[in-house]
Metacaspase-1
Amino acid sequence: MFPGAGRNSYNNYGPPQGPPPGQYYGAPQGSPPMPPPQQYGPPQGPPPGQYYGPPQGAPPVQYHSQASGGEYGGSSKGAGGSYGRPGMMTPPSTPQSFGQNSGFTFQYSNCQGRRKALLVGINYFGSKNELRGCINDVKNMSSFLNKQFGYSYDDMVILTDDQREMARVPTKDNILRAMQWLVKDARPNDSLVFHYSGHGGVTKDLDGDEESGFDDVIYPVDFEINGHIVDDWMHDIMVKPLPPGCRLTALYDSCHSGTALDLPYVYSTKGVVKEPNLWKDAGTGALNAFMSYESGNVGGAISSITGLVKKISNSNSTNREQVAAMKASPADIISISGCKDDQTSADARENGRSTGAMSWSFIQVLSQQPSQSYLSLLNNMRGLLASKYSQKPQLSSSHPQDMNLQFIM
């Protein structure tokens, strides 16, 4: 069944109650699933264990690759209300231009429209890749979104590998279908959340859009059979369809997840563009932007970046394709990841329970102070983690982001 068939949503099944009995993990019936896509290379990265890195070997069970049925239900009604304290900067309601008269615009969301969330947590039960905190992350996040930001359980889809119903298990097929559900019929001022807690890694980049030469990937529970999910796919499914003014907040608690949604703008704790990544053949424009940032000249960095966009946009069709490769969007998309692309994310233990360090810090910081800017949120998360963990959360966006605006979702 396709998750949510019969117009049932998460609240009809109740929250997960822990791993199912051992007999649940049987071999699949009928024809075996298709092998993983051959165009992607083998995962690279740190060994499994307490880190959310790429898993090794086969998972404890081979799930059916296809789930039958219809669509997710849920009312997707906006909760309304404001979660910031008076006086804090709120996002402007008009389209914002960038690129020095290039015609490129984006629009912030006020997050007062419909709210939907897709939460994925994978513990990889019984395998040598087993993690302990990912399902707890999802439980914590669903409760946090409901209580802190007014998300209804009716409008959440939760995929965890302790579910008895196959439609609720985080297979590759179920995750991709759920991503499509998340962005379906998205409108301006909607607020969508994607949260992933599980193994992550990298694979060889075959389309040339990654400066590092590697794409970020996440690992479904059936990765050994059906392969991983690459960042290009996640961008195509969850970013490209969104209209101007629609918010997507993506939270990745996995290794090598710094740019897991393939967004072009990356921000540091100083609040300025850290690297104008994803520009093919950017040349001196990108170099000038980087040098301006390094010297503390924020205005120069932004000027170099927007000048580069204008230069590309006014060139021939081949260069206009490079603008598309930049992967900016007219929508309002923010991604917060557990670490940089070259770091691992820790499976932590807080208050006597296993949890992902990034998920824990995100919830802790916003629970203690709900009204924060994007810059203070990133700094406070990093500060909270610094005393225990080496990883540094990363924030990226689909457009030039004013880091002094109030964080909303």
